[in-house]
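Risk register update: the risk of archive-format incompatibility is retired. Evidence:
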Amino acid sequence: MNQGSRIASSGSIGFALPREVEELRTQVRSFVDAHVLPVEADRANWDAHDNIRLDALEPLRAKAKAEGLWAPQTPAARGGMGLSITARAVMYEEANRSIFGPVVFNCAAPDDGNMDVLARLATSAQQDDWLQPIVDGQVRSAFAMTEPAPGGGSDPGMIRTRAERDGDVWKVTGHKWFITGAGEAAHFILIARTDPNPDERRRHLTAFLFHRDQPGWEIVRRIPIMGPEEHGGHCELRFDGLEIPDANRLLNVGDGLKVTQVRLGTARLTHCMRWLGLAKRAMGIAQDYIDDRTGFGVRLADRESVKVMLGRLAHDIQVGRLLTMHAAWKLDQGDFARKEVSMAKIHVADTLHAAADTAIQLCGAKGYSRDTILEWIYRYARQARLVDGASEVHRMVLADAYARERDNFWLWGA
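Archived output:
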């Protein structure tokens, strides 16, 4: 057999979804159409922060559970769907055709990333206490890492919140802010410095679990933001002697950076999965409008300039889907996929903003009004280039990877 024959017989790359994943996609799409979009369409179901009212949410969650569309990131033994990351990419994109979709299926940030990391890293006893109530929908959670300057943001080496050991207890002092969901959260994952050496950057952090009812900490304020908010908002926290039993330490002392890497890698990518759903929704709203809108005797949909705008957007969305699925595949292979996640995060964040902006431009005053959800998506989209690492940080990740790998940067495979 010659080389060409050997290559031909080795198989080819396929892009068709496995049958069971395609069935899941259509099931989620039908559920969103039948149950979620009608609730979204009635503004009486919205709360003061432009999210779904909790009393409107709970019946939808019950329906999602009944159809087996619940906690896709969590093992089936814990009541979740146990999906691979590539299957999640498909489901999350369909879920976020509605702005309320992810929270209905219990795959919205920050609970999504917190459930994922607890399922992967927590002990069985910790999972019983800290993970299971989130999976069951009984409580919400938050990941407390980001700090005001000069503390840690994108650079965890700068974290200043301290946890000092006193026997079997850790005493925490410090300051966190922009902690998503903290106003409604009962379970928290906290990243704090445990090594007093300011020059130690690999083993200086440890992760802990604490409950909102424990004394020694407070929510200083719910920080007003530009966009619509997750349930619980984005809060500033102050720690003044919070005591955490050593049994509620996640992994070993000094493994805090590992916890952040495990959590944030997948969490950044699941943001992309959801953002792609929103970008497609924005494009769909625009297409529906221009199909019917006529000006100067010509349908907007027939104008070359409009076709160019939507063609560019369709291209960018598809590039984002391919980048996201490639990163998801690498994560499923056990790779950290740092550069692949960074590439997806940069591109999809830009694409979401472009999708909202293009759709508003094409819909004109209607797009700028609250007659559609485009203004919601536009306000929401601006955070995409900031959350879980600013785009500039991810570009530095790519530059550093290329400097190390050179031509190997472009290798196929895991």
